[in-house]
């Protein structure tokens, strides 16, 4: 019997792609949704517990407000959890870590292979290029419906640069500059957020010195790239012991 994959939020834009990719690669056990609807022929479950009991792994790209409840439910049912939700806070992170003591969890702001290669390169550049000479700036653009800013992927790029520099992003972040901000501080990692149209996702990290600039850019043209990556991660995760994993573990980067 093939792996049964459940989709939390199956009627959403990402949920529909996830359902299609899961059905192509394994068995789609069904999903949950606020509307009570989903792709034709896909079983609908009343809550995350019911879905988890009929699934070997659950993929979750829902909303930050669901993280703690989903963490408890999936730990209770001992169901592996692929978490692509972004914008959650410190208490949610604690709930994820607690769940990972019981089940395997892979949490990532982006399941696209290309983005994760950018994260790896951003960390290496952050380590090699002196912060006093190379100003790091991250520019991202997404569709007009996106509710969190900067995006989870942009923040992940910032954390990668900060890790390369041996600092904490929270200590050097400069996001949403406005008004008379004064000169740029050495070591800042700046963020610019753009929203408009139906841009799937565009991220650029720039290291700019007085005599050169190095840029890394990733453009996503189709949300399916995130769905296919998440389903591949689900197939891998099911065979792992309890613990908290990232895309570097899955991609062996």
UniProtKB/TrEMBL annotation:
Residues 4-111 form the Dihydrodipicolinate reductase N-terminal domain. It catalyses: (S)-2,3,4,5-tetrahydrodipicolinate + NAD(+) + H2O = (2S,4S)-4-hydroxy-2,3,4,5-tetrahydrodipicolinate + NADH + H(+); (S)-2,3,4,5-tetrahydrodipicolinate + NADP(+) + H2O = (2S,4S)-4-hydroxy-2,3,4,5-tetrahydrodipicolinate + NADPH + H(+). The keyword Protein transport does not apply. Keywords: Amino-acid biosynthesis, Cytoplasm, Diaminopimelate biosynthesis, Lysine biosynthesis, NAD, NADP, Oxidoreductase. This is 4-hydroxy-tetrahydrodipicolinate reductase. Homotetramer. One of its GO terms (cellular component) is cytoplasm. The keyword NADP applies. Residues 114-251 form the Dihydrodipicolinate reductase C-terminal domain. (S)-2,3,4,5-tetrahydrodipicolinate binds at residues 143, 152-153. Its main location: cytoplasm. It comes from the Bacteria. It is found in: Cytoplasm. The active site is at 142 (proton donor/acceptor), 146 (proton donor). InterPro entries: DapB_C, DapB_N, DapB_N_CS, DHDPR_bac, NAD(P)-bd_dom_sf. Catalyzes the conversion of 4-hydroxy-tetrahydrodipicolinate (HTPA) to tetrahydrodipicolinate. NAD(+) binds at residues 9-14, 84-86, 108-111. The gene is dapB.
